[in-house]
Amino acid sequence: MPSHTDDLRLAHILADDADSTTMDRYKALDLHVATKPDLSPVSESDSRVEDVMRKTLARARPRDAFVGEEEGTTGWGVRRWVVDPIDGTKNYIRGVPVWATLISLMIEDQVVVGVVSAPALGKRWWASYGDGAWTGRALMSAQPCRVSDVSRIEDASLSYASLKGWEKIGKKNQWAELMESCWRTRAYGDFWSYMLVAEGAVDIAAEPELNLYDMAALAIIVDEAGGKFTSVDGTPGPNGANAIATNGRLHDEVLKRLE
């Protein structure tokens, strides 16, 4: 697959613009919050970030499609920019710093570029296909990400976002048993669970209900850090309805326990 250096640079520019927009309104007393049909909150910053990125990409990559959480899909073609303007909106509107903008480029069903930018944490992670995963404040000041070498569930640290959804997909008991088997469990939540897997600080991350824009950027970063990202049924990448991310060594065992 050809190099995606220019696309990665563009994704960083999009992330810079998103960071400026989100931080400008973070903890603002007059921040407006609406409720989407699924009863999840959407702040004015979600919409503003997506609008800014759509306009930039319309100029820089006019032939590419755009898939956003707030306004859906526009354009068509094999190249799709998949964006979650604020992953962790509930944290954002309450002043909790664990939220991020997720930006990815997919060619057909393959993610080739991913950037996760969490400005309130002062962190950014990124990857492009075949070039490894990295973290830092900018392309020129980065450190490589690498998953852990933990090989036993009993020694593993597991992070999650919510417990409720596991019952919906008929996996409540299996999930509870998996958690009980692990050495440590914490709800770091949302994007952060997966970035901690990529950094080797956590060994397993999982969520029972997700969309493509929740997962695409996370999947390539975990994969390029040496880990594995699939759905609960083993579908590779972010193309399923949920996510299991591990350091790779634990993956088959985790999937088996959730059968």
TrEMBL record:
GO terms for molecular function: histidinol-phosphatase activity; metal ion binding. Pathway: Amino-acid biosynthesis; L-histidine biosynthesis; L-histidine from 5-phospho-alpha-D-ribose 1-diphosphate: step 8/9. It comes from the Bacteria. Its EC number is 3.1.3.15. GO terms for biological process: L-histidine biosynthetic process. Pfam families: Inositol_P (PF00459). It catalyses: L-histidinol phosphate + H2O = L-histidinol + phosphate. Mg(2+) binds at residues 69, 84, 86-87, 214. Keywords: Amino-acid biosynthesis, Histidine biosynthesis, Hydrolase, Magnesium, Metal-binding. Its cofactor is Mg(2+). Catalyzes the dephosphorylation of histidinol-phosphate to histidinol, the direct precursor of histidine. This is Histidinol-phosphatase. It comes from Kribbella capetownensis.
